[in-house]
Amino acid sequence: MAYNEKLADRVREALADIPGVEEKKMFRGVTFMVDDKMCISVSGDELMLRLDPEMAEQLTEENGTRPMIHGGKHMKGFIYISEERFRQQRDFDHWIKLALDYNPKAKSSKK
Fold first, then answer.
1. Distance in angstroms (rounded) separating the CA atoms of residues 12 and 102
2. Where are the alpha helices (DSSP H) in 1-111?
3. Minimal CA–CA distance to 55: which of 79, 82, 87?
4. pLDDT in tens, 26-50
5. CB 59 within 8 A of CB 79
C-alpha cells in the first residue's frame, strides 16, 4: 500500500525546525523518528502517532482512531488517526503536538 505523499509533506513541514528528525520506510509507509524514537508515521491516508499510552487508550474509543496492531499484538501507545480527524490545519497541528510532547518521555527501541 502506498502512502499519501502530500500527507508526508505536511508532516515534513511540521517537523522542519526540529533537530534530530530521520525518515525511515516502515509500516507500509514512512516513519519520522525524532531523537532516534518512532514519533509519527504516514501509512496510506492515516497518521500513526506515538502518544502517552494512557492517552492513546482513551483516544482509541473515539471515532476516526484505532489502536495499532502489529503482528497480532496491540502496540501500547501507538494509534492510527484517520484523515477526517486532521483535515483542518489546527487539528493536524494538535495531533503532531501530542506526539512531539510525548517523544522526550518515550523510550528508544533496542538496536
1. 18
2. 5-15, 53-59, 89-102
3. 79
4. 878 999 999 999 999 999 999 999 9
5. yes
